[in-house]
Amino acid sequence: MAITLNSGFKMPIIGLGVWRIQGQEIKDLILNSIRIGYRHFDCAADYKNESEVGDALKEAFDSGLVKREDLFITTKLWNSDHGHVVEACKDSLKKLQLDYLDLYLVHFPVATRHTGVGTTDSALGEDGVLDIDTTISLETTWHAMEDLVSQGLVRSIGISNYDIFLTRDCLAYSKIKPAVNQIETHPYFQRDSLVKFCQKHGICVTAHTPLGGAAANTEWFGTDSCLDDQVLKGLAEKYKKTVAQIALRWGIQRNTVVIPKTSKLDRLKENFQVFDFELSKEDAELISSMEKKYRTNQPAKFWGIDLYA
After folding, report:
1. What CA–CA distance (Å, rounded) separates 159 from 73?
2. For the residues of 102-138, what is the DSSP string, one character each?
3. Where are the domains of the chain?
4. 10 Å Cβ neighbour count for 198?
5. Strand 154-160 vs strand 101-106: parallel, antiparallel, or unpaired?
6. 202: number of Cβ within 10 Å
7. Which of 47, 104, 162, 188 is catalytic?
8. Eight-class DSSP state of 291
9. What are phi and psi of 212, to 5 degrees?
10. Is 47 among the residues known to form the active site?
11. How would you label 55-72 residue by residue, b for 16+ Cβ within 10 Å and e otherwise?
12. N or C: where does the chain have the smaller number of CB atoms within 10 Å of the terminal CB?
């Protein structure tokens, strides 16, 4: 149920993503998920709920529900804080009420105009296009991330939304290799070459949006979810599992970490019940044939520019 990172630390192979969950809902969600067995939580400064997550974690620790060392907590450096890495990390730690992070990721491979530590704004220019800061290199940002490890603030560091070229460059200039690359990948967007490249070079792949975004990405980006695909529905019937469980199990059998997001208790339980069955080689290959190169999470909607172009 865990993958050993190149930093030597173990990362639970399934976690809970907390994007788009706010207020009291998030406390109930985290406490319930810990009771179910979740030990890995994926956060980000840009989700604007680190303080609520911190309150939930504190309650879990104070009540004896779980110990800090039993949890794996990830959060991420936002684009506008690339020139303020240490300050941004400390801001996240303060909000999360933690002494250290298990994993800190560069959220996107782009620095944008600084708007104040922790504000996580995406400043646009007068032309409506993201105001990218061309004076801060990704190499500079990465070396600042490495400083976090030496200062004891972070156990492992990684990248997110990096392609093969950017990942290769990070390997070339890094003193501490990225432990993780968190990317969108699911049956409709498999990115097999990127996954293989990362794994070949000792970088664990975490699949954000492992269910193709489902309702959240349909609402935000107008995209379709693979959960409606007849192939997955047929396999769900065959294995007597939900379609989501089939998609998550496929991700796990690729040796990727999966971090599905849900706010519903029944789905929370379902998503964790993926260790009592295994897809046959033929069925895993059938899912692999579903590839559509279909990205469902597209921040260009908000930024006026497609960073993946």
Report:
1. 15
2. EEEEESSS--B---STT-----B-TTSSB-B-TTS-H
3. 2-302
4. 24
5. parallel
6. 12
7. 47
8. -
9. 75, 20
10. yes
11. bbbeebbeeeebeeeebb
12. C
Closest CA to 272 of 296, 236, 248: 248
Name 288's Cβ contacts closer than 8 Å, sequence gap at least 6. Answer: 190, 192
From first to last of its 309 residues, the chain has per-residue pLDDT tens of 899 999 999 999 999 999 877 777 899 999 999 999 999 999 999 999 999 999 999 999 999 999 999 999 999 999 999 999 999 999 999 999 999 999 999 999 999 999 999 999 999 999 999 999 999 999 999 999 999 999 999 999 999 999 999 999 999 999 999 999 999 999 999 999 999 999 999 999 999 999 986 666 667 777 788 999 999 999 999 999 999 999 999 999 999 999 998 888 999 999 999 999 999 999 999 999 999 999 988 899 899 999 998
Angle at 8 between CA 163 and CA 37, to 5 degrees: 90
Tokens 């999360």 identify what position?
96
Query: d(Cα 76, Cα 298) in Å, to the nearest integer?
Result: 18
Distance separating alpha carbons of residues 211 and 247, to the nearest angstrom: 6
Would you identify the CATH topology of the domain 2-302?
TIM Barrel (3.20.20)
End-to-end CA gap in the chain: 36
In angstroms, the CA 92 to CA 94 distance is 5
Question: What would the two tokens of residue 215 be?
Answer: 């309702």
- CA 55, 61, 65, 66 torsion-angle sign: positive
Q: Is 114 annotated as a binding residue?
A: no
